[in-house]
């Protein structure tokens, strides 16, 4: 197992380490996602992950759809569950973080 250490005080802690996750869609089908970005935000005191469906292709007109989620770790700090973004303020903050850290 990997240790999950974050400075949860005042800094925005960002990780660009990619990882594949298997999630289930609304029909119960397995869907493979790539974790594109993970960060802890001190103002909201939450950890966020930005996912993209694995194998999704972008062309000149369309961007790959990014799916932001809140990562709620379990009591041991490993694993946990992904839950939807809760507020407009969080959506605005995530958009700013993504635009700043994923410009290519």
Give an overview in words:
Belongs to the UPF0473 family. This is UPF0473 protein J7T32_000620. It comes from Staphylococcus hominis. The protein has 104 residues and is mainly beta. The chain has one domain. The protein contains one helix and six strands, in the order ββββββα. Strands 1, 2, 3, 4, 5 and 6 form a six-stranded antiparallel β-sheet that branches. A hairpin with a 4-residue loop joins strand 3 and strand 4. The termini are far apart.
Q: How would you summarize the topology of this molecule?
A:
Blueprint: E1 13-15, E2 19-24, E3 30-41, E4 46-53, E5 66-72, E6 81-83, H1 88-101
Antiparallel strand pairs: 1-3, 2-3, 3-4, 4-5, 5-6
- What is the helix content? 10-25%
The helix tally amounts to 1
What is the number of strand segments?
6
Structural class: mainly beta
Q: Spans with pLDDT under 50 lasting ≥5 residues?
A: 1-8
Q: What does the largest sheet look like? A: 6 strands, antiparallel
What is the arithmetic mean of pLDDT? 79
Family: Belongs to the UPF0473 family.
Pfam families: DUF1292 (PF06949)
Protein name: UPF0473 protein J7T32_000620
Write a concise synopsis of the structure shown:
It is built from one helix and six strands; from the N terminus they run ββββββα. It is mainly beta and 104 residues long.
């Amino acid at each position: 197992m990997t240790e999950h250490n974050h400075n949860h005080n005042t800094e925005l802690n960002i990780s660009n380490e990619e990882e594949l996750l298997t999630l289930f869609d609304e029909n119960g089908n397995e869907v493979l996602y790539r974790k594109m970005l993970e960060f802890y935000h001190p103002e909201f005191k939450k950890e966020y992950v930005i996912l993209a469906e694995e194998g999704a292709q972008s062309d000149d007109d369309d961007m790959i759809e990014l799916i932001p989620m809140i990562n709620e770790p379990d009591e041991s700090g490993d694993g946990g569950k992904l839950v939807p973004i809760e507020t407009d303020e969080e959506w605005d903050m995530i958009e700013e973080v993504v635009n700043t850290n994923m410009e290519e």
